[in-house]
């Protein structure tokens, strides 16, 4: 039985990039992905460039690729993009044998992962709503602290 992957997404406001068979543990990639989920494109670039993990480089390339897809294919501006969905799935495990003493061998397991980055374009109306909620939360925080 062949499984066909279907993705229900809003084709008009979203662009995505998919990286498959990245030689990295899914657990280590999730540690970085959790930090950037839901943030704006520009903020994500700053975070990924300053984080000291090896996974940041692969994720940064995917974020750049998704933004290039959004600007070239859909005509979005990079300032109005947010990361609406970022997920990491486990890929295949490459199994090798390392020769050891006396004719024995030890298994080496190289895990891989699949990373999906989905960027969503926020229109001006939605951006204004987000700014209103942020300012409301900021005012509420100030009134509670005084």
Structural overview:
- The structure is a single chain.
- By secondary structure, the chain is an alpha+beta fold.
- The chain has one domain (14-142): Alpha-Beta Complex (Ribosomal Protein L22, Chain A), CATH 3.90.470.10.
- It has helices at 26-36, 41-50, 55-74, 124-145; strands at 14-22, 81-99, 105-121.
- Strand 2 and strand 3 form a beta hairpin.
- The chain is elongated, with a radius of gyration of 20 Å.
- The protein starts with 13 loop residues before the first strand and ends with a helix.
- Residues 1-6 have low confidence and may be disordered.
SSE order in H/E notation? EHHHEEH
How much helix is in the residues? Answer: 40-55%
The main sheet comes to: 3 strands, antiparallel
Q: Strand fraction band?
A: 25-35%
Structural class: alpha+beta
Kindly, what is the distance between the CA atoms of the first and last residues, rounded to a whole number of angstroms?
63 Å
In round numbers, the mean pLDDT is 85
The outline comes out as: elongated
Mind telling me the CATH class? Answer: Alpha Beta
Radius of gyration: 20 Å
Count of strand segments: 3
Give the second-level CATH assignment, the architecture: Alpha-Beta Complex
- Superfamily at the CATH H level? Ribosomal protein L22/L17
Low-confidence stretches: 1-6
The helix count comes to 4
Q: Assign the CATH topology.
A: Ribosomal Protein L22, Chain A
